[in-house]
Amino acid sequence: MSVDRNQQISHYLDDELTAAELSDLQEWLLADASHREEFATIALLHNQLHGHLSARVAMDTVEPENLVQVEKSNATVRGFSLRLAPVIAIAGALLLMFLFWRGDNAAVAAHAELEKVIAANQLTDDRTYLLQVETNEIGGARQRRKPNDEQRPPKPPLNGARLCVRGNHKFVLQRSLENGDTFLTGCDGVSSWSVPQKGAVRVSSDPQEFNRDVPGHEYSMSLCQLDDALKQLSIAYEIFVVPSEETDAASDELEATRLLVATKRKGFRGPRRVEITYQQKSRLLEQIRFIDMPYGEDRMTVRMSLIDLTPLPNNFFQHDAHHTPDRKVVRE
Amino acid sequence: MDDRVLMATKQWTLVQPVVSAFVGAIVRDFAARDDVLQEVAVAILESYDTYDPARPFQAWALGIARNQIRNYLRRQKRDLLTFDEKVIASLADTFDGIGAELRTLDHLHVCVGKLDARALELLELRYTQDLKPAAIAARLQSTANNIAKALQRIRDSLRDCVRKQAVAET
CB pairs below 8 Å between A and B: how many? Predict the structure, then answer.
């Protein structure tokens, strides 16, 4: 009689096999590498389901009054609670243990808070941010001294840009040039691309190719890969949580926010300081300020504000969703 | 914090999902799995000086996880029904090569969102309350066999779904 191996693996993971069935499964696993791969893919799904379901249930436990609405969005974001600890604790285990050993309880609490913000960010689907440059000096003094023919073409301005992200690797960055044209860059997770208003569409098999004129990519803090940027904070920055402000009657209807401040450690590259404003209950990230962020030869302060949580179309992160089919496409 | 700790932390964060799945495949109680994972993290930090950067970090971390699983199984008073050392060693090699499968699971939240209420209830009882099929059956007035089969069908459908989602994206 043939054995349903999917069923046998599933029963093994649920601890439902007899000793004889387990022995049979072991023999099957040792017989061929493809059998072990089949087992590993089911075990991987099983493991991920545990993390995902824990997070989902944690969100469902938040009271309705804590639900928030973001500007122009009908999407609601459900809260996030300490019950997510199993999801986030593992990823931060090493760092937290180190801090515990050092006896630095405030730092432990701040890093744990950052891990919760990272986990909440990962659970949020499509997000749209508005970028605002507070201080900027594109093409710094040294570059301006160069003769015209040695200067690189100016980068498209970031101020007023809109950044749409899905997960950690998909983004579309929409910038407006001084002549009013729109310039799009993006990544669909596999390839990256640029779509200018006129001229050829460029597509690269390197997902990072069109991320390179965005601040932060050189030191793992690209604005387009927010998850990586937040994780880099836990490594290269001292983290502090600013105590909550007292709320008054007028602010009762607003979601209380908290501020997490990260200051760069010596020996690392990156913005001098990062300020993260997030909702206290849901840990939804409302705004990040990158202060004194290296950008080529200069530094800038950029504010990223969450403006929309509306789900985007499935193909939104592919270049052909943003131009007509007759446009010339150059593959690099 | 010195550079050694920072580097260990960074590398651990990257490989943790695969190591967690490997440990969970052998240590099937979720709370015990988390305990073993913490011991793996400590062991990585303590022995990081012996890590050869020329070797892949994930394979090294999986080797440490194997040792910690062995220690865990030895500590158990009762006889656990689990794989022998030879199978565990060959599975460690297999998990080292499943990065592509891990990426398809980026779509898991979409696929879970498509499940009906009954399937979600079963998953929540199994994965958030860590109940085994017999305990779930007692709650839902069913049989352990029915529940185990239902869980298998749900996992199969989720596996199909994430793969289709991944293909649709390429």
Answer: 166
Among A54-68, B17-31, B133-147, the range scoring the smallest mean pLDDT is A54-68
CATH number for position A267: 2.50.20.10
Distance from C-alpha of A275 to C-alpha of A318, rounded to nearest angstrom = 31
Q: At B52, list the tokens.
A: 């050869």
Domain extent at residue A149: 123-245+252-331
Distance CA A12, CA A85 (A): 26
**What SS3 state is found at B154?**
helix
**CB of A109 closer than 8 Å to CB of A241:** yes
Angstrom distance (rounded) from CA A294 to CA B126: 48
What are the backbone dihedrals phi and psi of residue A248, each rounded to the nearest 5 degrees, phi first? -115, 180
Residues A180 and A263 reside in one and the same domain = yes
The two structure tokens encoding residue B136: 């779930």
Structure tokens given for A73: 């969005």
Q: Do B169 and A29 touch (CB under 8 A)?
A: no
pTM exceeds 0.80, yes or no: no
3-state SS, one letter per residue, for B7-37:
HHHHHHHHHHHHHHHHHHHHCCCHHHHHHHH
Closest CA to A127 of A162, A166, A175, A70: A166
For residue A229, give the nearest of A270, A260, A258, A191 by alpha carbon: A270
> Which of the listed residues A35, A60, A85 is the one where a domain comes to its end?
A60
Nearest to B159 among A13, A17, A45 (CB): A45
Q: Cβ B9–A44 below 8 Å, yes or no?
A: no
- A144 in the same domain as A293: yes
* Closest CB from A46, A53, A235 relative to B24: A46
Percent above pLDDT 90 for chain A: 29
Please check whether residues A54 and A134 belong to one and the same domain. Answer: no
A79 torsion bin: left (phi>0), alpha (psi -120 to 50), beta (else): beta
Residue B4 sits at the chain A interface (C-beta within 8 Å): no
More confident residue, A90 or A214: A214
DSSP summary character for residue B107 = G
- B148 has a chain A CB within 8 A of its CB: yes
Whether A39 and B94 lie within 8 Å, measured CB to CB? yes
Rounded to whole angstroms, the Cα distance separating A157 from A300 reads 12
Q: Tokens standing for A327?
A: 């446009």
In this predicted model, what pLDDT tens digit does every residue of B69-126 receive, in sequence order? 999 888 875 556 789 899 999 999 999 988 778 878 888 888 998 999 999 999 999 9
Instruction: Look at chain A and report how many structural domains it folds into.
Output: 2
Q: Which candidate from B37, B83, B101 shows the least CB-CB separation from A90?
A: B37
Minimal-distance CA residue of chain A relative to B109 = A52
**C-beta separation of A252 from A268 below 8 A:** no
Q: Do B13 and A90 touch (CB under 8 A)?
A: no
Nearest CA to A117 out of A255, A299, A281 is that of A281
